[in-house]
Amino acid sequence: MNPQYDFEGQVALVTGAASGMGLAAARAFAQAGAAVVLADVNEAAVRTAAKELTDAGHQAIGVVCDVTDEDQAAAMVQSAVDTYGRLDMAFNNAGIQVPPSDAADETAENFDRVNGVNLRGVWAAQKHELRQMRTQGSGAIVNCSSLGGLVGLPERAAYHASKHGVIGLTKSAAVEYAPRGIRINAVCPGVIETPMVADMLEGQAEAMAAIMSEQPIGRLGQAEEVAAAALWLCSPGASFVIGVALPVDGGYTTH
């Protein structure tokens, strides 16, 4: 059973919120009493996700945002502030995968695309979240890295570069902003049952089987398990936790 949090009167922002771990986190923040800003590049899906929460009696809005565009990231944060007056928590979860590739054959297009979303997108969202939070003197940010931010795997160089970068971004910003009352951490999900992983399981069955064999718990993770970690990192229970890269990976990175 997940811990119960009281986020009444607080405002949470989640990117990549239309599905998978982002949607699970948005639901969890709402159930804990927060007003939630759901952001996603998929307009129809994010509107549907926000409506699900408002129909259940929660405060929520859906915002269309391509995090690779800094102006859109800034507008996303401004929407939160214009609607709810503040921003207390953020889960920068939006991310993509690219097909596996021999490091010598990786295309610049794929490298730029995966780093544009996974690293630049987190940078842009965090930058504008921090601008609001520093005026308040409080806040908590969780950035989504990956087990790919902690280890190396064949044919994953570009993706792992983006996720290692998220950890560096998180740690440096964390030590800069801790004295200002803002905590920044990262989660590093393992193989989680999401639409993106379902596509990988289907299209890269052999590679995914090898990865799964290294996951000691012997099963896929659930989106709700990553959401639970993100909520804890945003909660008072993690008040002395700064700049961590928390594995949520069923034990994958223990060996």
UniProtKB/TrEMBL annotation:
It comes from Streptomyces muensis. InterPro entries: NAD(P)-bd_dom_sf (IPR036291), SDR_fam (IPR002347). It is an enzyme of class 1 (oxidoreductase). Keywords: Oxidoreductase. The lineage of its organism: Bacteria, Bacillati, Actinomycetota, Actinomycetes, Kitasatosporales. Transmembrane segments: none annotated. GO terms for molecular function: glucose 1-dehydrogenase [NAD(P)+] activity. Belongs to the short-chain dehydrogenases/reductases (SDR) family. Pfam families: adh_short_C2. It comes from the Bacteria. Its EC number is 1.1.1.47. The keyword Cell cycle does not apply. The keyword Oxidoreductase applies. This is Glucose 1-dehydrogenase. PANTHER family: DEHYDROGENASES, SHORT CHAIN, ESTRADIOL 17-BETA-DEHYDROGENASE 8-RELATED.
